[in-house]
Amino acid sequence: MAIRTIVWGENIHEHINAVVGGIYPDGMHSTIAAGLNGDAAIEATTATLQESEHGLTEARLEATDVLVWWGHKDHGGVQDAVVERVVRRVHEGMGLIVLHSGHFAKVFKRLMGTPCSLKWREAGERERIWTVNPGHPIAAGVPEQFVLENEEMYGEFFAVPEPLETVFISWFAGGEVFRSGLTWRRGAGNIFYFRPGHETYPTYHNETVMQIIRNAVKWAYHPHPPLKGIHDAPNVPVDKALEPITERGPKLHKAGEEGYR
Amino acid sequence: MAIRTIVWGENIHEHINAVVGGIYPDGMHSTIAAGLNGDAAIEATTATLQESEHGLTEARLEATDVLVWWGHKDHGGVQDAVVERVVRRVHEGMGLIVLHSGHFAKVFKRLMGTPCSLKWREAGERERIWTVNPGHPIAAGVPEQFVLENEEMYGEFFAVPEPLETVFISWFAGGEVFRSGLTWRRGAGNIFYFRPGHETYPTYHNETVMQIIRNAVKWAYHPHPPLKGIHDAPNVPVDKALEPITERGPKLHKAGEEGYR
Amino acid sequence: MAIRTIVWGENIHEHINAVVGGIYPDGMHSTIAAGLNGDAAIEATTATLQESEHGLTEARLEATDVLVWWGHKDHGGVQDAVVERVVRRVHEGMGLIVLHSGHFAKVFKRLMGTPCSLKWREAGERERIWTVNPGHPIAAGVPEQFVLENEEMYGEFFAVPEPLETVFISWFAGGEVFRSGLTWRRGAGNIFYFRPGHETYPTYHNETVMQIIRNAVKWAYHPHPPLKGIHDAPNVPVDKALEPITERGPKLHKAGEEGYR
Amino acid sequence: MAIRTIVWGENIHEHINAVVGGIYPDGMHSTIAAGLNGDAAIEATTATLQESEHGLTEARLEATDVLVWWGHKDHGGVQDAVVERVVRRVHEGMGLIVLHSGHFAKVFKRLMGTPCSLKWREAGERERIWTVNPGHPIAAGVPEQFVLENEEMYGEFFAVPEPLETVFISWFAGGEVFRSGLTWRRGAGNIFYFRPGHETYPTYHNETVMQIIRNAVKWAYHPHPPLKGIHDAPNVPVDKALEPITERGPKLHKAGEEGYR
Questions:
Q1: Left, alpha or beta for A238 (phi > 0: left; psi -120 to 50: alpha)?
Q2: Which subunits count as partners of chain D given 3+ CB pairs below 8 Å?
Q3: Domain of B198: which CATH number?
Q4: How far B109 CA sits from the closest chain C CA (Å)?
Q5: Is residue B195 part of a domain?
């Protein structure tokens, strides 16, 4: 079965900015989803901010393996209940790919636990993306470096937790560097942040960019059943202990009582 | 100057449970603080849930290098505004040591971005704590293993992010294991989780336990000025670029405009 | 195409120790290879110490995706030239699964750069293996814990580098713990160490053990072309620089000269 | 007591290249040692390739807390016995700071277990070094970025193991990036690689460079007694087990026998 993937798009600038609308007439999410569907192993659909529950209902998320997230202008417009729902599914094992300005998305900040801040400059300058982890599955088939002739600059310090692995680092014409491809696991869910994708440039029409996102979807996917138990803190009764033990000393809880939260 | 440390205690069971009150007549926080003050490099004071703003005012946190946190029965009683204040200070560089049942403290869950769940059993069973990273500063002077004859069991899976380093792993008589000493950095702040410390046992009267907490305070401390800029996402104007660049292509923002959040 | 896997066996105790020979009449390597071949995605063959070049010729390694290594009694008998050959292929992207007493194999020590020492006891005691990273591909389908009723004890401190991720931790009846499933990448090659497998016990007849090794083979495999360039340190001539630069200042090397090694 | 530090210098180009001799008339090692001795917490001496046992006798290494290594032209001239001696001391807890072309030093390659290869260009181009981990002790007091106007370029892929933490990343005028400040622990020893320092430029006269090396010496130092036991693999006899167990099943070794290596 193909990897059930949702590309979530904020879907605002496509409608209010002529340049963005010109590059992505059907929305950035549609372009990205089409690029993913070019791979038979992936089955990508889309969801947007404007849909009911932002298109991310409980039932739909349950049937989703990987979520790709692009947002920028209205992070605050994403309902907190939907954010928690997404975060829970990541903990249970849904993969999450966060793109570009999604560094400030509520779902990403919630999972990172850090400010996720960075420097930026919108000057259409040259970005060179270097592969610094050529053995990583996300780098499969990616050259040692490639160029995006016009991109927004993101510069360090990028306030995220030290990643499991750093896969890409960007060089910018204006003198900055940025860790552009980073991996984490949170609960059972794999997370990949990928920097490029400013909406006024045709970044998601770039074949190498799309190759990386396809690789990331495959890497983030695990065919595990969801780890539903991750939200619980079960008491293991003394008489169910794996090795025989005798209860000793004082205790707070009665047998079978729930713990505090 | 000594490391300015606050030991925060929930301070409930000491007053409502005779066993806990008997072991820690002045409160667990006082016993822990006294143990830290045995080291001239540390200057520990206390704060409790019951104090105004839980004893963690803006001004006091500004003057704090490391915060030690013990809570259990009333995690929900900690005000969200204080949680955010603590989290911001950790991002700026304040160290944080989370003890035992603090795994479910709001500040810890907020910084980890994961459920922080685990298994547990209150049977006064034997815990053996093994040093699996003897070169780590937190393990300085700690034997290869030591015993707490009566402790609550915590068992895996412990739903926290993969740590920077695993320092201690516990063996329990009932058959479980647990990663008992784990480190992370979030922003500029060092975080250490240390498992032992159930309130019905005299764990914080154990000298090795206190040695580890003292080591952790010293490890978590950095003499950096607070990284106040970590909360900002500054625009770098084109004419201030480090290397001369020319603005090209379309853009969303006017010069000097704030980014979206 | 299936993952081309070699199971390398030292193949000594099977012939000189009746107990080992009874459990593994065709050799441990054959039993392990048969277990791997139960999965259609894997195509496992075997190689042994006694074969010419230990069965690991240049040509055969070139055509190998993942190497599984079991050795114990005669680590010193493995030729250094073959060790270097294996190490080079790992750097280029061949996966490596090191089993049990392979912790002291030359190939493993060479790739880790550490002593790889540990404590041990041969008492047929109970081992409980806990999954501490249930979202990891190597843990797919593995229960939260399982038992090997008779195993050799390995105890911490296990002198290996901090892993990328810790997947399994063992509990032993005699009081020890051990990080039993650890991952690293070296160059482009994925490495997994898995603890169980003392030759006097029927460990590789255990279905969960074999499930883990199958998972590990799949995890370690990448369909990348070998990263042959990893052994080189190429000079990038000034006139081939990606961005135009002018040579300035004094230099040691003439244009096109090789660097020092 | 001050941190007992040796600055090891290859000490060749200073004598055969007029430019290098002009910048470092007393040798690079002397300049670096003088910079370290500007900090009262450090007591730095020097050693060179030309000295007996390269100045790194058993006795001297035993009395050393941190070793700083600079070599380039004659890595092959370092005796293997001295390499092993240094590596053992790192495993036991001696800190190691490897500078610039030391990426190909035998001691570094031996500890990393990888090729340690990279790209390079000697054009005196501009290097900008960015702090990507401002909370790390090695970044204390270091600005968010600083410039070395003339340096040799080192470019990715840098074939080293994923570090514990990435502290600095370099931007080069010619279009490359490089992970310039990386940390690892091997055994009980802390290791820091720091990129700058081509001998034809006055890099070690730069105050920020020296501040970083001073920070690194302090970070690498631990006041632990040496972990001498790390080289052993002790048998734990059944009757000395921490928890009472009964020997069961067949075994290879007689009681008290040494394990295989």
A1: alpha
A2: A, B, C
A3: 3.40.50.880
A4: 18
A5: yes
